[in-house]
């Protein structure tokens, strides 16, 4: 009897940029933070922040389609929108760019995922420097850094003192906690050894 099984469909290859991160697929909605695990490990290592923190932030920021054309259209409708796979606003980007002498422009974040992830990791490093060693016990250091990524450095420092976060920050924190195990699994699978993802 002949084998009637159908061959698996061929996947279209994605191009890889100089930083080792795959470019977003051309179809909207096809973005997956797991595609960038190697880039996360590389950028987190450079910034000396936990890869698990960076990967979990990427999962949290994956709520909208990350595609260069869609981001251009979104900016046309909303000029102050955030760009790139890590959803960074222009003022934050400029602050990180000046602090670390980075080349490139804010608009490059939408077309260069490796650059966007590198800038996000450096921003988390800067937030970590400004976070006091002692903080409210209800949050881990990574949770406070994620809150700082979302709500800004001043709010992060207030949360560290025990000021309760507002509804949007609480929602961000819930999602961050929920994505933590998925991000760890992604890194354990393809981003490097598990002991490199301390949280």
List descriptors.
single chain; 199 residues; mainly alpha; 53% helix; globular; disordered C terminus
- Give the termini distance in whole angstroms: 55 Å
How many H/I helical runs? 8
The overall strand count is 0
Estimate the mean pLDDT confidence.
82
What is the chain-wise order of helices and strands?
A: HHHHHHHH
Q: Which percent band covers the strand fraction?
A: under 5%
| Class of secondary structure makeup | mainly alpha
Task: Give the helix proportion (percent range).
Answer: 40-55%
The rough form would be described as globular
Cα gyration radius (Å): 18 Å
Q: Report the sheet with the most strands, covering strand number, pairing sense and barrel closure.
A: none
Q: Report the uncertain regions.
A: 1-15, 192-199
How is this structure best described in words?
With 199 residues, the protein is mainly alpha-helical. It is 53% helix and 0% strand. It has helices at residues 37-47, 51-60, 68-77, 90-100, 113-130, 141-151, 153-161, 167-191. It is globular, with a radius of gyration of 18 Å. The N and C termini lie far apart (55 Å). 39% of the residues are buried.
SSE layout:
Elements (H helix, E strand, L loop, with lengths): L36 H11 L3 H10 L7 H10 L12 H11 L12 H18 L10 H11 L1 H9 L5 H25 L8
Helix pairs in contact: 1-5, 1-8, 2-8, 4-5, 5-6, 6-7, 6-8
């Amino acid at each position: 009897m002949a084998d009637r099984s159908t061959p698996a469909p061929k996947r279209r290859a994605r191009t890889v940029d100089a930083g080792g991160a795959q470019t977003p697929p051309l179809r909207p909605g096809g973005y997956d933070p797991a595609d960038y695990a190697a880039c996360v490990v590389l950028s987190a290592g450079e910034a000396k922040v936990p890869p698990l923190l960076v990967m979990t932030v990427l999962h949290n920021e994956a709520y909208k389609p990350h595609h260069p054309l869609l981001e251009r259209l979104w900016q046309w409708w909303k000029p102050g929108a955030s760009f790139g796979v890590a959803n960074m606003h222009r003022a934050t980007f400029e602050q990180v760019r000046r602090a670390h002498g980075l080349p490139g422009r804010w608009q490059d974040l939408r077309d260069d995922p490796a650059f966007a992830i590198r800038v996000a990791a450096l921003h988390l490093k800067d937030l970590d420097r400004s976070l006091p060693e002692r903080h409210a016990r209800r949050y881990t250091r990574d949770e406070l850094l994620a809150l700082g990524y979302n709500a800004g450095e001043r709010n992060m420092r207030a949360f560290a003192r025990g000021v309760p976060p507002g509804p949007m920050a609480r929602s961000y924190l819930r999602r961050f906690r929920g994505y933590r195990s998925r991000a760890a699994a992604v890194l354990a699978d393809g981003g490097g050894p598990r002991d490199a993802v301390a949280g």
